[in-house]
């Protein structure tokens, strides 16, 4: 699917530098960046969900430890 990305001159320069460093097109550089952000946010979401489950599961233990 086609998409137009409007950037400022500064943003375009950043994308150009990234693309040149990686030896890819500017389009590919942007797609890679989007994928990295998605992976990071997905990981953060998973960690948050796991932490919440552990807090619920071990809340009694944590409460007892807090009073020791």
Number of helical segments? 3
General shape: rod-shaped
Q: Major sheet, described briefly?
A: none
Structural class assignment: mainly alpha
From the alpha carbons, calculate the radius of gyration and give it in angstroms.
21 Å
Say how many strands there are.
0
State the helical fraction. Answer: over 70%
Distance between the termini: 59 Å
Strand residues, percent: under 5%
| Low-confidence runs of at least 5 consecutive residues | none
Mean pLDDT: 93
H and E string: HHH
Organism: Gulosibacter macacae
Protein name: CopG family transcriptional regulator
Topology:
Layout: H1 9-22, H2 26-57, H3 59-66
Helix pairs in contact: 1-2
What are the key terms here?
single chain, 68 residues, rod-shaped
Mind explaining what this structure looks like?
The protein is mostly helical and 68 residues long. It has a domain at 40-68. Helix content is 79%, strand content 0%. It contains three helices and no strands. It has helices at 9-22, 26-57, 59-66. Helix 1 (9-22) crosses helix 2 (26-57). The chain is rod-shaped, with a radius of gyration of 21 Å. The N and C termini lie far apart (59 Å). The model has no long low-confidence stretch (mean pLDDT 93). This is CopG family transcriptional regulator.
């Amino acid at each position: 699917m086609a998409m137009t990305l409007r950037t400022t001159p500064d943003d375009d320069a950043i994308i150009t530098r990234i693309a040149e460093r990686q030896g890819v097109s500017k389009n590919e550089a942007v797609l890679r960046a989007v994928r990295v952000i998605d992976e990071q946010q997905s990981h953060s979401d998973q960690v948050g969900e796991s932490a919440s489950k552990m807090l619920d599961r071990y809340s009694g233990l944590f409460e007892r430890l807090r009073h020791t």
